[in-house]
Sequence to fold (249 residues):
Amino acid sequence: MKIDQISEDGIRRLVDEFYARVRADTELAPIFYRAIPGDWGLHLATMRDFWSSVMLTSGRYKGNPVAVHLRIEGMEPRLFDRWLELFSDTCGELFDEGLAESLRAKALRIAESLKLALFYRPDRPWPRSVP
Amino acid sequence: MAEERTLTFIVTDNCIKCKYMDCVEVCPVDCFYEGENMLVIHPDECIDCGVCEPECPAEAIFPDTKPELESWLKLNADYALVWPNITIKREPPADAKEFDGVSGKFERYFSPNPGQGD
Fold:
């Protein structure tokens, strides 16, 4: 039975399942393990807070994701695409289509915004990703 | 001039003299900055999550994809650099309701002075 309403429990399942896939993914695992060499429990808790803030307006996450991503070496636009792919698959498996779509839409906006912050240069054309 | 690219939400006219501040409570990235009588969003810190938009009682927050809002994007970007950060909601102005929906507030009431911040 797929989840049809967002809740803290649903967010926990999403984050746990999604990051399990990230850690097993040949493209994403290396950069994630470089960025998070130690305690993944802390990262998962942060990401639960983040998605709870975004989907349930709980205000639990307080941070600066742009600054965090700017500090990570080896970031590339294609890594965002792969991230979105895995996230989309995970959403599709856990949630009903309406809820999965609203999560994907949020993730896409946020990813695009982070990509702009990281890679946009005024003198170069911007390749907007197609959902 | 180089084209500015951001994906952000911005605060517009109807925030002026209303300043309800509900947005600052829900913003996950603390990107609101406080002027004397309105708030702005720092476009480089906003991650475009859109959580604030429906929270605004004055419906003053919009995505920057609307071309007619270009001057507001510039105002948000400029004042976010000089006004203090605000993350904790306070009491809105006592007369906020009277100014909610009044048109052309920028010309009559906009103040470039900083607010008190957190």
Summary: Helices of chain A lie at 8-24, 29-35, 40-56, 65-70, 77-94, 97-119. The two ends of chain A are 26 Å apart (CA to CA). DSSP finds six helices and no strands in chain A. Residues 97-119 of chain A form the longest helix (23 residues).
